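Cross-check.
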Amino acid sequence: MTKASDLFVQCLEEEGVEYVFGVPGEENLDFLESLSHSGIKLILTRHEQGAGFMAATYGRHTGKVGVCLATLGPGATNFVTAAAYAQLGGMPILMITGQKPIKSSKQGRFQILDVVDMMGPITKFTHQLASGDNIPSRVREAFRLATTEKPGATHLEFPEDIAEEDSDTTPIPASLNRRPIAEEKAIRAARQKLEAAKSPILVIGGGANRTMTCRMLTQFVEKTGIPFVTTQLGKGVIDETSDKYLGTAALSAGDFVHRAIESADLIVNIGHDVIEKPPFFMKRGGAEVIHVSCIPAEVDPVYFPQVEVIGDIANAIWQIKEDILPQGHWNFDKMAKARAAEEEHTASLDDDMRFPVYPPHLVKTVREAMPADGIIALDNGIYKIWFARNYAARQPNTVLLDNALATMGAGLPSAMGSAMVYPDRKVMAICGDGGFMMNSQEMETAVRLGLDLTVLILRDDAYGMIRWKQANMGFEDYGLTFGNPDFVKYAESYGAHGHRVESASHLGELLDHCLGSDGVHLIDCPVDYSDNDRILNHEIKELSAKLTL
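Predicted model, tokenized:
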């Protein structure tokens, strides 16, 4: 006979779990004791939300399930945002929460919530364990569902009386579960439409951000010469220093990249999820669309693809690549003209050395400081638009941003998860002052773990994204400004290294120093967002509209 909590941990070991991120409570103590005798490392965080974000980022990088732990009640409710972050972003996680005894409890309804029902709308699978004998099957099912397409969040509630039970069951070994390959007729139809098109274009979304898919798409573009754009979650699938890269759809509409897409007569939409804002809208009689994804299209008035290629994306692209012949009648001049106009506009801004630092110069400086395989983890704010548009991603999953739930507070934990998965790569969290303060307590966790990490705080003493929208709507500046601590002293109080940017040129020097040094470094960087409304809401749209394509 095996104690149920020991059996649960054995099941996690069978699944190859390396870490459990979390904040334990009284109801987790049997599980915690069992975990202490295993080869799995507990990563104790300062907030359950941080644990969830770290687990999700682990899943995003590895494709394996990130596991996180919380107690009942407030511990479980603190997982809700992280669950939605993973579910919408396609990151596989398993959340384990404790619960009071379910067979006999003498504490009434103290701290009791229906956590399983609460998790239902934001997970792929949620279940209360009511018997130790069911643990192996429920854990195996949670892991299986977390990683099948589309990956996402799962949840198991582990009551403390069940954790104390004995069971004679054993873990169920992981099963082999491969994605099906696309059907031959769909591949042929896609290839025929591509060869017949005059100006085809690739639109690459987050579903393509997998290692093998990146390889196949790079080979496809090299063979055909067909240019590509990306969504924000698709950044880095193909090296964006390629001359076939036409930009990233960071603004909702009216950007140079949208003009490039408008000049196409056939759009190959690869791995795009409707969870992101659409980079284009279909019109009756307009450009046709080929939908290439692991899951069928969700049809609505602005998205009704003519061909759906459903199956493993890497294999589908490989099949099309093997059969397609580059066509002499293909013409990408209009797309190239739109891209050249965008590059010219960016070049007119990114050498502006004003202080506080100008956003285009900030992005250029960070790009120059980071190696090709360096990872930037963005929190949510107006700077996300600047980085999505102007930061050339060189490799997959090197620009971690959240364009699904778009939550604040994820930047620092996401960078920490990245530094754990890739300890030999340079990792930088880029956070607004608002988002950083939502999970700034995890600085202690980062220092305690001995991570090598740079945290760049873009300080404007306001919720800048909403302030930008407020200005665009013609409203008075109201209700969005705040004060901040001395971030340098704040970092030092955690045992990290604090730095303050004194000029635009000083930023590059500090980045080089921090990225070249061990330990946790925080950089307080004042930013000048005064031109956000003028450039992003007006100038870009006016210049792109004037292009004659």
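The chain has a mean pLDDT of 95. The CA atoms of residues 21 and 68 lie 4 Å apart. Passed to J.P. for a second look.
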